[in-house]
Write a structure and sequence with these properties.
The chain is α/β, with parallel strands linked by helices. Helices cover about 35% and strands about 20% of the residues. The chain has two domains: about 120 residues, ornithine cyclodeaminase, domain 1 (2-Layer Sandwich); about 190 residues, NAD(P)-binding Rossmann-like Domain (Rossmann fold, 3-Layer(aba) Sandwich), CATH 3.40.50.720.
């Protein structure tokens, strides 16, 4: 994929959600991240994410990343607002914008409506983790949460585990889970997969070959004792120490992997487990890059429980923006 050249006439472009959706698929993004993450992690500088409380329940996140490598000449910054109370307003809880610059000239290249970019990259990281950690013949996916991220997570897991034929959705508000199940049942691309909702999480956790969680919960939802033998637990929602989606038993039972080492400092499930002596940081089995490179072994057999905790990173944002931007530029050149 061609990288942009530096010219005095470079005009920033706006990449809308419609354009982004026409370019990205979870399958192509997972493939892109798998091939680019190991090298990009070496060439990219990613300062710690800034998390600022703008009110009692709202957060502003600033996520920068930059590289001077000729093959990846970008600076990217994402601004994210998290307003969990938006559900009562029938609005998404997460909004974001992303700005891409040329790292050698500092020129502004593109501005993204990054809400959708975030949904794609977050779910694709979970899908990539699942590729290494879930059982190859997984049949049942339990989706905990039914917000905007949930259908993306479902699609990402299905893209790497086409053996999944049953998806069970749970949400605190049962009507929302039922609405998502009904919507996905009617959508194209899910032939052969059944979608259903269930109002009792305790009853369905034990059915999941993969259990994926995307909530803003500050109280454990998944009880580790109920996870079935061979299950893969995908934890996406928490991004600060006060948040958690599973109990200590789930962490104790599983072989734990993280998307990056920041999770060891930010994820409430892990920080709490460290503090209580459930596991230590040394017990965490590895990062996603180590799995991709083969430095760490993922799933060892079909009976062990695996846990993947992601908190996101500027590296993945930039690589996702790279794929979209360079595709747009290539298409523009092709039309000339």
């Amino acid at each position: 994929m061609a990288t942009p050249s530096i010219t005095s006439t470079t005009t920033p472009i706006f990449i809308s959600t419609t354009t982004l959706r026409s370019i990205l698929s979870h399958k192509t993004l997972i493939s892109h991240l798998k091939s680019t993450l190991p090298n990009a992690s070496l060439s990219l500088s990613t300062p710690p994410r800034h998390s600022l409380s703008t009110s009692q329940n709202s957060t502003l996140l600033l996520m920068p990343s930059f590289s001077t490598s000729p093959s990846l000449p970008y600076i990217g910054v994402k601004l994210v607002t998290s307003h969990p109370q938006n559900s009562s307003l029938n609005l998404p809880g997460i909004h974001a914008c992303y700005t891409l610059f040329h790292s050698l000239s500092g020129q502004t290249l593109a501005l993204f409506d990054a809400t959708e970019l975030t949904l794609f990259r977050t779910s694709s990281i979970s899908g990539l983790g699942s590729l290494y950690l879930s059982n190859f013949d997984s049949h049942v996916l339990v989706m905990v949460g039914s917000g905007n991220l949930s259908p993306h997570l479902i699609t990402a897991h299905l893209s790497v585990r086409p053996s999944i034929k049953r998806v069970i959705i749970w949400n605190r508000t049962a009507e929302k889970a039922a609405a998502l199940a009904d919507r996905l049942t009617r959508e194209k691309g899910f032939e052969g997969v059944t979608f259903e909702s269930n109002g009792c999480l305790e009853d369905v956790i034990g059915l999941g070959d993969i259990v994926s969680c995307a909530t803003n919960s500050e109280h454990e939802l998944v009880e580790g004792v109920k996870l079935k033998e061979g299950a893969h637990l995908d934890l996406v929602g928490s991004f600060k120490q006060t948040m958690k989606e599973c109990d200590d038993e789930a962490i104790r039972r599983g072989r734990v992997f993280v998307d990056n080492e920041v999770a060891l400092e930010e994820a409430g499930e892990l920080v709490g487990a460290f503090e209580r002596g459930v596991i230590s940081k040394d017990d965490v089995c590895g990062t996603l890059v180590e799995l991709i490179k083969g430095d760490k072994v993922g799933r060892k057999n079909d009976k062990e429980i695996t846990v993947f905790k992601s908190v996101g990173s500027g590296v993945v944002d930039l690589l996702t923006a790279q794929l979209v931007y360079e595709t747009v530029i290539r298409d523009q050149i092709g039309q000339c």
